[in-house]
Specification:
Bound molecules: adenosine-5'-diphosphate, magnesium ion
Largest sheet: 6 strands, mixed
Pfam family, one: ABC_tran
Strand content: 25-35%
GO molecular function, one term: ATP binding
Shape: elongated
Number of helices: 9
Oligomer: single chain
Number of strands: 20
Organism: Devosia neptuniae
Protein name: ABC transporter ATP-binding protein
Strand order of the largest sheet: 6-7-8-3-9-10
CATH superfamily of the largest domain: P-loop containing nucleotide triphosphate hydrolases
Family: Belongs to the ABC transporter superfamily.
Amino acid sequence: MAGIVLEHVMKTYGSLYAVNDVSFTVNDGEFVALVGPSGCGKTTTLNLIAGLLPMSGGDISIGDRVVNDLDPKDRDIAMVFQNYALYPQKSVYKNLAFPLQMRKLPKAEIDRKVQDAAKLLDITHLLERKPRELSGGQQQRVALGRALVRDPAVFLMDEPLSNLDAKLRVQMRSEIKRFHHNLNATVVYVTHDQLEAVTMADKMAVMNGGLLQQYDSPANVFAHPVNTFVASFVGSPAMSLIPLEVVSKGTEASLRSPEEGWELPLSAFNARKANASSNGKVVLGARHSTLKLHKAAAPGAVPGKVYTVEPTGDVTFAQVFISGAVVNISLDPSVLIAPDEKVWVEFDQDRMHLFDGASTMALQAA
Ligand SMILES: Nc1ncnc2c1ncn2[C@@H]1O[C@H](COP(=O)(O)OP(=O)(O)O)[C@@H](O)[C@H]1O
Ligand SMILES: [Mg+2]
């Protein structure tokens, strides 16, 4: 296995910056998810690593080799796509064996590699079947197997689960995670689904508009999003974001609703952050699980109006309008509230996020 280094990687199409100055390092054996909304540059980044597209600038290394000018076949990678692209007329065995036959490996070695991969992926009993006789999940496992037999330095996967139904996707998610764990493989995995990234990856590279927004462990990205884009992209339901004004009183500060006039006093630490705002405005961010709903005015709580209530069984999600923003709150199912009800929402000062009103970047305490 090998690590991957991207340095100032660029890909332009005319005036469009599909990948704009992206740098990150995938350590040997790491599972890295490239995640972001459709069109943000994930597939382009993966294809640049694979060598399927020429770069407009920058450097890519795999292992200790700069691969900028190497053909895909010389980069020691294997790709797994959303469309499994299995040979329909060949058996599973022959689908797995074919890339090895092309490389003219001895027959006994091919058989050993195919049997090993089939065992690891639990498809030994399917080896004589044709792809059309397999379920979607089984076909995806064969596609993984075909990458696996080649014993590459790096696995590159582009939305491999997006053709599967929701239940199978969750199942294959843990299978691919197990695959990575068993092999200690270096994997770069593209997905638009933040939950896949959070649940599977050692590190996630969050992209938007061709730019790398944040590169860190899912736990750190979740706990310390660098800007409002990452804050609202990672986590479900999304982090709620409320634009507010800063009212500074010396070292103290509170947040004021421009629409409704109420003020929320801040802790000393949050006041230092709010006072660092570049334009006297902040975006207050809060995750659903950090908010407390009250039926009457309470200290540290601000007024809101219930918009919708969604019971899901274990937990009920409420959407509440606060100062013109929609705020998600999770509630115990025993809490009974109704649309249009007036409520008060209490923020946890230790778990709230403050972003600059102009740059949208997370504020640091001054
Ligand atoms: N061959 C191409 N010619 C022009 N624009 C392209 C081409 N391929 C991709 N793009 C553009 O580059 C951007 C990134 O695309 P892509 O990497 O496929 O996004 P993602 O995989 O994140 O959905 C998009 O705006 C897309 O329209
Ligand atoms: Mg894509």
